[in-house]
Amino acid sequence: MTVLNLKPILKNRTLRADVVEKLKDAIIRGDLPPGTKLVESQLSSLLGVSRGPLREAIRQLAEQGLIDNIPYTGTYVANITVQAIRELYSFRTELEQFAFKLVWEQRDDAFHDELTLQLEKLSLAIKSDAHIATIFEELELHNVVYKHCGHELLQDTWQRLRGRLHLYFTLHQKAHNRTGPYINAHDKYVELALGDDLPAMLDHITEHMQQGYQKVESLVSEIESQN
Amino acid sequence: MTVLNLKPILKNRTLRADVVEKLKDAIIRGDLPPGTKLVESQLSSLLGVSRGPLREAIRQLAEQGLIDNIPYTGTYVANITVQAIRELYSFRTELEQFAFKLVWEQRDDAFHDELTLQLEKLSLAIKSDAHIATIFEELELHNVVYKHCGHELLQDTWQRLRGRLHLYFTLHQKAHNRTGPYINAHDKYVELALGDDLPAMLDHITEHMQQGYQKVESLVSEIESQN
DNA sequence: AAATGTATAATTGTCAACAATCATACTGTT
DNA sequence: AACAGTATGATTGTTGACAATTATACATTT
Question: Which residues of chain B fall short of a pLDDT of 50?
């Protein structure tokens, strides 16, 4: 052999998986706003793929809740509703409290280091006014906790939420040209996460999520005024 | 018009949806045991459908976690692991506690009636030794709570868990020829659910789930002994 | 005999044509 | 003019054929 073929390892090997990734990114980044109709023939030619794999990708994303499909009628980027945002934040609160209860007794050096590193990355992104990066790094910070729980079901559930959360952050950022978290919003979070007071951590999560909700609340009122 | 055409309302109108339903049922009822390889050509001819819709159905079920798909290799009914069962029960505890916190202040007559009715159905199924029906009715009982929360995200998450839970119950029943819940196991549950003591209800859920886990624990040890 | 390489068969991935359904614009009727 | 009915076009659903990949069995080499 001449060279190692790393493609199977580094790249998604099926067109379907590529399409899922690309579509998900496009939605999350706001390139395909909520409500956009996704016409199969257009999308398939745009992505250079036939309709077969595209349709399979659509099934996956529909199951993830990022798009809505109505048989014989069409596929649409999932609409944002006030209820959906509220539900996301209340559910996320429960999920993350559960995550901390699980992770608390098995926190180790790796957990400490990753959390600290991720906080630095987030701070840097905020300071640099790198809005898109800021959204990503904030989600990555919370992801550290879920990753260390050793609870696959919780992890999967979090991943499903993460996509929609990312979308809300992006839309909010686009609408107001300012990103979500303020500079010190996560300092106390990490401090408590590495401390000894679990009840205090759980309380802070409730508070943290409410603050997060406050920030996207302007998005909520805009949606409400559209009716 | 001669007669109302109710087909579009009562029936899934796409082959894909039919296949999803049929495959899900077959897995949940234990007709396709965990680990079974699902060969597309075989399944499609068995179901009288071409491979297109079948593959789309596979994407949906894979996203729901009922089957595992390895590109270019094959699709398998998801294997049961000890970890998966433990995770399911711990996660379910959190989920149902959240559900009761949500529903508590908005319980009404409909909630009361449905819960009572469902308890009767469950009791009848148990008394009649209707094992398959018993599994269904027990899940339906818990479903009443989720239905009344008005929280779609929670509801969706519960539905995803429900399939796997149903499968575990079925496998346990098949292995030991006895069904899960004992005759009075849900009496206290419903009594507390209709009462005034939320903390007591939450505590009972923890206990209830632990009892449920005890019942399928024999399934766990069997799986473990297979290694 | 064990390990390596190769050919074959089985299976999955992809595609393009065809059928079924829906939405729109148009026509005709009251 | 408003409404119902109809025809047309666009879009989704379905199918069978073809390409790419993998796994198995077999042959070859050490």
Answer: 1-10
